[in-house]
Amino acid sequence: MTLSRSRLLAGLTAAALLPLGAGTASAAPAFDPRMVSALAAELGVSAREATDRLHAQVEQQGKLTQLQGAGAVDGAFFDAAGRLVVNATSDAGAAKAAGLGLTTRRAAKGESGLLAIKRELDGVAAAGVPVGVTSWQTDLATDTVTVRVSDETRPEARALLAAARRHGAAVRVEHDSTPLAAHVSVSPGAKMTFSASGGGYCSVGFGARDGAGNRYLVSAGHCLKDSRPLYSGTTQFGTTTNTRFAQGRASVDMGIAKIDGEDSIATSVYTHGSSAGSPAVRGAARTAVGGAMCKSGATSGWTCGTVRSYDVSVTYTDPNGGPSTTVTGLGSSTVCTMPGDSGGAYISGDQAQGMTSGGPIGQQCTFNGGAQSGKSSYFQPLTDALSHYRLTLTTS
Question: Is pLDDT at 286 greater than 90 in this prediction?
């Protein structure tokens, strides 16, 4: 696995927080070989050289802790050579840092000054989302706040850029044409909506991949129609690509959506705070009729029952007065479901079974009520959907 420089530095910071006494270690810490290997590849050095660098950074971090306790530092960073550079706040602070063997400098702004500018820009952004501005952040090494812009012509961006430029050389504006999006991992059984503002919703099914490694959500076909976007909260994580459901016509209730960017579908089921925890998904072996299973859905949570039958055909009535639809190839169960649970994940032990399709109109379930007498539902078997779309289930 290749790690970005920012993730490596995060790992180094974590390593530096190992107990070190007063800045010196009685025993050198051991580092994860994968982290050592990734750092060596990043820097183009040997594993031994990477290990030495990690030990040196831990030692320097311990010395920095002493300076921070004395109030002598206004920010610090590791340079390209692995040396810790300290923004000293006074001549006495600089002398103390040098006495500990650290590199010092006197910065025009320092961490506190840069953060003040950054917070000002945050306030401008709070008054109106600066569409066209990709990011703004402090850069201790250059002693500036860096603002990255994807479209400077957007009126939404102008207020933030105007505020930034009032700080002159303390702010750098860089052009970056790549927009950003939040990366999310969406769990089977969680709620998914069709717009950032909410409204109608279904529940998340299971993650899968095609032969080229593309990631997909497998869910109920009536949830995945019209090339609609899918959201977790206000973050879009996928877009419908295929469905076999068409209201008013003979249908199969399966569909898939392609997952965006670096987003993903988790390999454990979200059970809405129930005592079931987060069951891992390790396969899709179909349980026999009579087998016990549970489902997770956004409306009724974690409910349980048994399989009644497979290859079931049903007629779904539209509560809003639209045409009825015949659906074939379903499984039936004694699991309780309600509207909004559609698409949600059925699992037996650690084996994924399918996704909620439908159930009796007006049925009421106890939220997270487990097995509930006299209830029923229908689900789209997962193995049939995986086979039809030639996908492989993503497992723990």
Answer: yes
